[in-house]
Design brief:
- The protein is an alpha/beta fold.
- 26% of the residues lie in helices and 18% in strands.
- It is built from 9 helices and 13 strands.
- A 7-stranded mixed β-sheet has the order 4-5-6-3-9-12-13, with helices on both faces. The protein has a 4-stranded mixed β-sheet with strand order 7-8-10-11.
- The protein starts with 14 loop residues before the first helix and ends with a helix.
- It binds 2-acetamido-2-deoxy-beta-D-glucopyranose (4 copies).
- One of its GO terms (molecular function) is xylan O-acetyltransferase activity.
Amino acid sequence: MGTEWPPAPAQPRKAAVSGRVALKVLLFVFLVGLALRLLVGPSVYLFPPTASPEAAAALVTTAPGREVNAGGGTPRIENCNLFHGEWVPHSAGPAYTNASCRFIESPQNCVTNGRPDTSYLYWKWKPYGCDIPPFDSKIFLDGMQDKHWALIGDSILCNHVQSLLCLLSKVEVPIEVYHDKTFKSRRWHFPSHNFTVSLVWAPFLVKAEVFEDENGVSSSETQLHLDVLEPNWISQWESFDYVVISTGQWFFKTAIYLENEIVIGCHSCQNKNLTETTFEYSFRKSLREVFQFITTSPHKPVVFYRTWTPSHFENGEWSSGGTCNRTVPFKPGKTGDREQDNTMWRVEIEEFNKAAGNKEHNNADHLKLLDTFELSLLRPDGHPGPYRTYHPYEKGRTAKIQNDCLHWCLPGPIDAWNDIIMQMLAKN
Ligand SMILES: *[C@@H]1O[C@H](CO)[C@@H](O)[C@H](O)[C@H]1NC(C)=O
Ligand SMILES: *[C@@H]1O[C@H](CO)[C@@H](O)[C@H](O)[C@H]1NC(C)=O
Ligand SMILES: *[C@@H]1O[C@H](CO)[C@@H](O)[C@H](O)[C@H]1NC(C)=O
Ligand SMILES: *[C@@H]1O[C@H](CO)[C@@H](O)[C@H](O)[C@H]1NC(C)=O
């Protein structure tokens, strides 16, 4: 890519020119949107029609001068792939801070926890050929009147919901109305918008019996029912209007796999006379079950399937002293060999395409791919590392500190996930 790769501050845009172009684009988008609405009727709109002038204004705008597409012409908005691009310097910084948002939980609160470098906060995800405007909390909340949004999955979804709450609380501060015993499943309500956000704990999405304490130490292998969905989310399915769903790293764990209530194999079980079965197999089988349910259920919320989030441990793993002390993003194409991550992502794409391509079942295109894999992979600098706890080096530099190179600092790279969701909603 010919562009420079600066950890240097962002260059100010040529505001006047880009402003004029943006205005034209907005007008165009708005007119096209209007025409489409007249043609197809309001039901295709994810935002209600009343929100559309602003929603149109919040749409993807083409960025002058940065296009990288082969044809060289101005890329069309509808052709812009929101998931393929690079991180560019962004001097304006994040949409919220450790001081302005009280929904950042301690393990993700890198700034408060004393992470010394801050340059990781000054990047913006820039798809090739278009710009993503920042998340607009007011438009989002106005469009979500009386709606119920669910984030279903593992602790990365918890990470994601904190980002969403931080963004939304700039307009209205939600009230927590439910949590389970362990605070893994939770629910918030925004009274003046009657908008509900649920975080639903279902780390495998399929039914799992986990024998693990708070610190992730297992007393026995996890038992995974590859053909039974986790009741925690399907029991609430009918109440959801929008869903972000994902699964991930838990599939790497040692587990006994069951189908039809019969043990069919095991992944990395020692001293057990069981067929070794790959996590790719269990992942694929589980995803199939999930997509089957989503596409055949008569209840059709808008579903964003969020793709794989990589971890960035170097020189070891979670449990063996691995760290992640990089301070700038990777350049595109320089992520190194990420074979396992790529394998899991490919499984997801294959299974998603099969499910979404089945027009008989996915008849209203309610299933959408939130393909955050590439943009996440490029951010080894966005994890808490040792700063998952408050001032970890207080007891001296030599203290042995476990690093978190899987979850994400907030504010941080995954705030872009919400910016993208906003665009996907507006685009429709
Ligand atoms: C935010 O982080 C800064 C820097 O670590 C710290 O001084 C400040 O107390 C933090 N604010 C809150 C509200 O945690
Ligand atoms: C609030 O939204 C829920 C759906 O999420 C709906 O069932 C309920 O009637 C709404 N309440 C009011 C007061 O409109
Ligand atoms: C392991 O399983 C095989 C096939 O089920 C059986 O023939 C064999 O006896 C078992 N070995 C042990 C040590 O249990
Ligand atoms: C980053 O961590 C590695 C060990 O994983 C260490 O060798 C290196 O010195 C660290 N770099 C910085 C800047 O702390």
